[in-house]
Recover the amino acids of this structure.
């Protein structure tokens, strides 16, 4: 069973990323965007 130290370590890795074009360190970035568009495509404009 994971210890509290293990849980704290995993929690430190799971940091959200909100910058366009950046990806969290715990996932592999996709090779291309939706429907083959470039990764830098802005899908939602606020």
């Amino acid at each position: 069973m994971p210890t509290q130290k293990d849980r704290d370590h995993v929690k430190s890795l799971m940091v959200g990323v909100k910058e366009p074009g950046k990806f969290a360190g715990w996932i592999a970035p996709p090779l291309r965007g939706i429907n083959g568009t470039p990764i830098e495509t802005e899908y939602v404009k606020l």
Summary: Residues 4-36 form one domain. The CA atoms of residues 18 and 24 lie 9 Å apart. The chain has one domain: 4-36. DSSP finds one helix and no strands in the chain.
